Amino acid sequence: MSAPAASGRGAAGRGALVGVALVAALGLLLLLAPSFLFDTSFRLGVARTAFSMAGLVATWSLLAGIAGQFSFAHVAL
């Protein structure tokens, strides 16, 4: 008979948690970066539009390219 498995998170669980925290911190940094980099409201608006369009492009690539699905939400925007 083998010994029962230890309960709790192993090294893989902690590594995944650290990865999620890093991605969340990077996302927050990218969200706040334009307000620190651009001094005028026009440039800030252009940067925000560019970041939102980049997000739409990334999700469109995942949906249409990898998953092979079509999204009407992207067409509406």
Give a short summary of the structure.
77% of the residues lie in helices and 0% in strands. It has helices at residues 11-37, 41-67, 72-76.
Helix/strand-derived category reads mainly alpha
How much of the sequence lies in strands comes to: under 5%
Q: How many individual β-strands?
A: 0
Characterize the largest beta sheet: strand count, sense, and whether it forms a barrel: none
Distance from N terminus to C terminus (CA atoms, Å) equals 60 Å
Rounded to the nearest angstrom, the radius of gyration is 20 Å
- Look at the structure and give the mean pLDDT: 74
The backbone outline, from C-alpha atoms, is flat
SSE string? HHH
DSSP summary: helix tally? 3
Taking pLDDT < 50 over at least 5 consecutive residues as the criterion, the unreliable ranges are none
Task: Kindly state the percentage of residues in helix.
Answer: over 70%
Protein architecture, described:
This protein has 77 residues and is mainly α. It contains 3 helices and no strands. The relative contact order is 0.06. The model has no long low-confidence stretch (mean pLDDT 74).
